[in-house]
Amino acid sequence: MKFLISLAFKNLTRYKRRTLITAGAIAVGLMMYIFIDSMLMGAEIESVRNLKWFETASARILNDEYWENRFQKPMDLNISSPDKIIKTLDDNGITATKRMVFSGDLILNAEDFGEDGNLAATVTAIDPTRDFDVFNFGTTLVDGRFLEPGEDAVLLGSWFAEDIGAEVGYWITVVTRGNGGFYEAMDLEIVGILNCPNPNVNRQLLMMPISTADEYLAMEGAVTEINVSLPENADVNMEVERIQGMLNGDNLTVMSWEAMAVDYLALAEAKRGGTSMILFLIFIIAAVGISNTMLMAIFERIKELGMMRSLGMSNTKIRLAFMFEAAGIGVIGSVMGVVLGIFADMFIVNIGIDYGFLLRDMDIGYRLQAIFRGVWNPGTMVKAFFMGIIISIVVAYLPTKRALKMDIPSCLRHQ
Q1: By C-alpha distance, which of 145, 148, 156, 146 is closest to 106?
Q2: Model-level pTM?
């Protein structure tokens, strides 16, 4: 065995250029796999965080029938006593806030916007005293100020404000249906603009005080949802069951963020499948490179191979020698690939890639506004290292087997 390993090592050093070129092909493939895996995993982790911080919270309490009709945003499928539920949650150490979400038509006046116009909008009415304890909007203000309870005012997402040409101090009118079906028009001043890292929210955010919406829409204290914040390390499903038990069968249901974001999670799963496709492409790159190298190595040494066989060296030992040589190429390529992958990860983790020019006008599913940052994933590096070696050995087997089918005289006469 020691002789076979020594022979393989000599063959590697005898054809240094070819060895390095083949190992380099493996290294580039592994580096790309490590880099893309890091970027996609980082995008997924940050997307989940932005989803919970700005869109779904950790969990949400709703009327039993609301979720099935959520796209219509019905005001009659509401929670009639939200303050009582929030007090119960507070007593159990759970942070929560009430919200009212409804659809309306946004009317832009000519005095501020230069011309009259209107567009469909979704309005989120919040409790300014508690909302930022559950959602993370407290760090997103870029112009103006935050809302105060009871005022006729709104906050806009920065992309939404840019799209309609709005600025702090402008007035808008929101026309909607109140609880009972009557039409109501609300004149609201834009007092602040928020730049939210979640692009889905930033494109459509229109936020007003819940007490103002309650008065205009005759909700009599009812809300459409209560959002709950849970610790990062909490078992969300277990907490959902615990909160459900506190509601005492009030025709209410508690949904985890996973249940509300099922479409996003399906998309993330599909994108993870793309990583597997990258690994398959790496396999193809390695297979072609190793096959080419081993075919050249074997057919350049047909006479040598025939001489070894004539001296009594078995086909099994000859095959092992070439397997060791292929494994050596795999080790060199894998080491180079992991090292290059580490350097690539240093860039994507610490600096990232700015895709803001693309994400501003295009929704790719991730809850990221601009910069894709990666995460360190040692497991991927270990897997890439061993895959580079295994692929090299597996792919080298076929050309070796083919060469060993030649008889000894044919090998010795080979030119």
Answers
A1: 156
A2: 0.80
